[in-house]
Amino acid sequence: MTAKTPPTPPFRDPHLPFAKRIDDLLTRLTLDEKVSFLHQFAPAVDRLGIAAFRTGQEALHGVAWMGPATVFPQAVGLGATWNTELVRRVGEAVSKEVRAMRARDDRVGLNVWAPTVNLLRHPLWGRNEEGYSEDPRLTSAIATAYTRGLRGDHPVYWRTAPVLKHWLAHNNETDRATSSSSVRPRVLHEYDLRAFRETVEAGAVAGVMPAYNLVNGRPNHVSPYLREHLRTWTDEDLLVCSDAGAPSNLVDHEHYFDTHEEATAAALLAGVDSFTDHGTDGSQITARIRGALEQGLLTEADIDTAVRRQLSVRFRLGEFDPHDDPYRGTAEFDTPAHRALAQEAAEQAVVLLKNDDSLLPLASDTRLAVVGLLADECKLDWYSGTLIHRSTPLEGLYERFGAERVEFAEGVDRVRLRLADGTFLHVPPATEAADEVRGAVGALDPALLAGRTDLPPLTADATGTEFALVDWGEGVLTLRAPDGRYLSVADDGFVRAAADQPGGWVVQETFRLEPHDNGHLLRHLGSGRHVSVAADGVRVAAENASLFELIIVERGADAVARVAAAADAVLVVAGNDPHINGRETEDRTTLALPPHQERLLRAARAANPRTVLALTSAYPYAVDVARLPAVLWTAHGGQAAGTALARVLAGDVSPAGRLPQTWYAADADLPGLLDYDVLGARQTYLYFEGIPLFPFGHGLSYASFSYADLTTEVTDGTLRVSFTVANTGDVTADEVVQLYTRAVEPSSVRPRRELLAHRRLTLAPGERAGTDFEVPLSAFAFWDVAGDGWRLEQGPYEVLVGASSEDVRLRTTLVLDGERTAPRPVAGRGLDAAGFDEQSGIAIVDRTKSEGDAVTPEGEGPGELVYRNCDFGQGTTEVTARVSGTGTLELTLDGGPPLALLALTEPTADPYTYISLTAGIAAEGVHDVRLALRGPLRLAHVGFSG
User: Fold this and answer.
1) Cβ-proximal residues to 388 (8 Å cutoff; 6+ apart), any chain
2) Cα separation of 593 and 648, whole Å?
3) Exposed (0-12), middle (13-18) or buried (19+): which is 175, by Cβ within 10 Å?
4) In this prediction, what percent of the chain has a pLDDT beyond 90?
5) Rounded to an integer, what distance in angstroms lies between the CA atom of residue 202 and that of residue 188?
6) Buried residues in 581-595 as b, exposed as e (16+ CB within 10 A)
7) Which residue of 494, 646, 832, 936 has the fewest C-beta atoms within 10 A of its own C-beta?
8) Contact 259, 251 (CB under 8 A)
9) Would the pTM of this model clear 0.85, i.e. be above it?
10) What's the pLDDT at 439?
């Protein structure tokens, strides 16, 4: 007899809907198997033929951490292209390389953690390089394009499954795991949520990752916003993946919960579906979940909900239908098309900030001095792949202008370090050591990559070694040996010339010279220890620090001045190393260019007035450009950065990048790094009232453009804007047309300008193009705290068309129908404390651990709240405040004398235990309500009655 073939289980039947297949699979998995799926590294279930799966593959601007891959410009550079179609193609190329790399290395995951849609609210944020823009609409447009490329265009199966980072209001590395972003309702809805919402609603997002920080006193990993907002924006099952170590932070650092079982249960119930903690070891997370089940904090149904969301992503990735997966055979990796796309993206990311007297483009016979610390560098960041191809500005200019016409001076200070006994630090030869590039092999967690120990440690001898010293700002130094390797410290504590570049989670290649007696101590910043010369070699040690005399052999500024004086024009390439002074875990402290680079710039300009500054950086700088005829900016542009910059300088490509964020003129223009109230603090181009160094959307061209024929029409809830743009120059070039609006007579503070739409056009000389935008009238609405919802306010609105937020070429005013402004009815509803119109010295905090907001004074001083146009009707006689903690609440109307003083003298049991305080008042009609809070008092609500 022939054994019967067992029937195909429904979860393996490709003809059934995914939902039914997942239902079937959930019934076949044991509870322990389902629990095991909740860790980032979900194990295989061999009895069902289910493979292991991991969430998380970094792919911000190319496949990261897994070895060589095509490296595209940093995300902020992609944002600077303002080109959604280009970014979609970049996402498509990255996802194809993910698939191709996975085919030969199953460590490569298909659940990609990209893009980052955090808004670039504050330019000192260390991770500025990871975002696209300070504007939510531009961010969502670029992010949507990238996710569509990552997802692929098949109606059922996804090439990769993108997860958006980092939910929510996350723009500081300083105390990032314990700080709370105070986000008022208007900022929450009009700013921080908007970028996520519009990207999710576009339909190519598989999930989100909560950020380390807290919002309004509550950790993002237990945020009710995941349920109240995120999951309402789509019918898809979204997979919420925790950030690395964040589940443990809920107890260990934030102390928000007493036990890990309680914390893990709260996170899962809030919507976290996959826990990234303890590396590849899932035992601790699964033990916590089992403990939560035993304590009744979770049910199996709760586990099923989270596992369902993960399985939904796995089914969409074709895991259970290998024969139907259209992307299974994808093999496109480092193709000519991908290389060309990397160059195109790098070219489109270049922003021409200034070009007096048309100094640029440079004539082909120009004798060019190329100087600066980044002139011969192709820098990578923490989320880059390993370079297969590499192009520095110097290499690109050699190729474009000819090596015989280009002179180079890096501008490093050439130094020796002399010891008290007269000997010098010396790098011994290492002729047999193999070349090694950091990250070339790939690692699931590159933070664990160790430094090299196969090279000999430094020693001391009579002649010593001449080092290239760079001060990257704030006294942070790197020292490079003549063979190009940086001094670095490995786990054994010895100092070696061992690193191809500074890098790593804890950078081991940075030092600081500390004055001591008549010399300097050399502190290694990665370990915090001083350098000590011992008999067995140079090491870092807790004691016996060596004293050094710094011998300057040549100052970099002198070398720069020499080559600059002999050239027709000078290119100064300045900027940052993405691993130093501004990166993940470290915010910047200033907008200023580091003093070392300022000296080089001044030396070049003094020697040659035809000096061009090319800033290559992950963030804006405040630079004095008054005496510079030409300035460009580009983010670190990936593998083709040098070629791209050279082609722009030569005029082969007309620059058309646009600034994705405001460049402020000075540190004094910036609010505090932890001040997330963009409205109250007048942050970003939306509200900033000063004069920027360069405005949002700014960028020049080698061509000129005229705008004409503006018309507007409102029909069926949509505004249609039409106009024409013409290239009036003599070269083919791109123009980025930008559409803004401004409420003319708003009832509350509204943006000075607000981007509605944009488009990047390519026009030949003399070519004219008609341009149309259709904008839903809902785009003109704002979040009305009085009504706790969106409101399109009736009245006049300016429609502005131009080349930047400040370069407006066409304008008109139209009157929109909408809701009239009405007083806030407080007699019945009262006031939610966080629904204020204005505040001073106030922080928003969690009303309970699971939902709601309250307010409290920030710091030791008093706090004040203002609620405008409050209608008390025919009159009220009593005020009731829901409060916790201890302190006083004073109520006044229209700035008059106090009407009521409510005091909580005995502290409540905890911050979440509220009581009601009442007092008599006499109020009628419409007034502005002012509340003054003193002491550690939490206010949740104020009611009026009588």
Assistant:
1) 68, 69, 70, 71, 334, 639
2) 23
3) middle
4) 96
5) 20
6) bbbbeebbebbbbbe
7) 936
8) yes
9) yes
10) 60
Q: Model confidence at 1, in pLDDT bands (50, 70, 90)?
A: low
How many other C-beta atoms can be found within 10 angstroms of the C-beta atom of residue 917? Answer: 20
Residue 517 annotated among the catalytic residues of the structure = no
pLDDT of 433 higher than 80: no
DSSP state of 127: T
- What amino acid is encoded at 923 in this protein? A
Beta-bridged to residue 919, according to DSSP, are 879
Residues 202-242 pLDDT 10s: 999 999 999 999 999 999 999 999 999 999 999 999 999 99
Residue 704 has pLDDT above 90, yes or no: yes
From residue 3, how far is each of 6, 49 by CA, in Å?
9, 20
Distance CA 196, CA 118 (A): 8
Asked if residue 56 lies in contact with residue 64, where contact means CB atoms within 8 angstroms, the answer is no
Look at residue 2 in the predicted model and tell me its pLDDT.
Answer: 59
CA distance 632 to 655: 9
Distance CA 630, CA 646 (A): 15
The closest of 878, 888, 891, 881 to 919, measured between CA atoms, is 878
- Taking the C-alpha atoms of residue 93 and residue 100, their distance in angstroms, rounded to an integer, is 11
Query: How many angstroms separate the CA atoms of 540 and 497, rounded?
Result: 14
Distances (CA, A) of 728 to 652, 725, 767, 768: 18, 9, 8, 9
Rounded Cα distance between 245 and 254, Å, is 12
Question: What whole-number distance in Å separates Cα of residue 814 and Cα of residue 659?
Answer: 28
CA angle 165, 288, 259 (to 5 degrees): 90
294 sits in which H/E element: helix 283-294
Strand runs (DSSP E) across 303-377, as ranges? 351-355, 368-371
Q: Can you tell me which residue has the tokens 């140079």?
A: 538
Please tell me what DSSP assigns to residue 578. T
Contact 701, 735 (CB under 8 A): yes
Tokens of 812: 């008109």
Nearest to 215 by CA among 847, 866, 931, 942: 847
How far apart CA 285 and CA 264 sit, in angstroms, is: 8
- Residue 686 to residue 134: CA distance in whole angstroms: 9
Grouping H, G, I as helix, E, B as strand and the rest as coil, residue 612 is strand
Output the DSSP codes for 766-818.
T-EEEEEEEEEGGGG-EEETTTTEEE-B-EEEEEEEESSSS-EEEEEEEEE--
- What gap in Å lies between CA 10 and CA 357, rounded to an integer? 72
d(C-alpha 60, C-alpha 938), whole Å: 40
Phi and psi angles of residue 53, each rounded to the nearest 5 degrees, phi first: -145, 145
| Tokens encoding 769 | 């193009």
Query: How far is 571 from 78, CA to CA, in rounded Å?
Result: 24
Q: Which of 243, 471, 587, 832 is catalytic?
A: 243
Helix (DSSP H) and strand (DSSP E) numbers for the chain: 19, 49
Cross-strand bridge partners of residue 215: 181, 218
Burial of 3 (0-12, 13-18, 19+ CB in 10 A): exposed
Mean per-residue pLDDT, 75-103: 98
Alpha-carbon distance 656 to 661, whole Å?
A: 15
Distance, in Å, from the CA atom of 900 to the CA atom of 919, rounded to the nearest integer, reads: 6
**Percent helix, percent strand, percent coil in the chain, to nearest 5:** 25, 30, 45
Count other C-beta atoms under 10 Å from residue 357's C-beta.
Answer: 8
Report the distance separating Cα 902 and Cα 881, nearest Å: 8
Quote the tokens at residue 718: 């949509």
pLDDT at 366 over 80: yes
Can you tell me whether residue 40 is helix, strand or coil?
A: coil
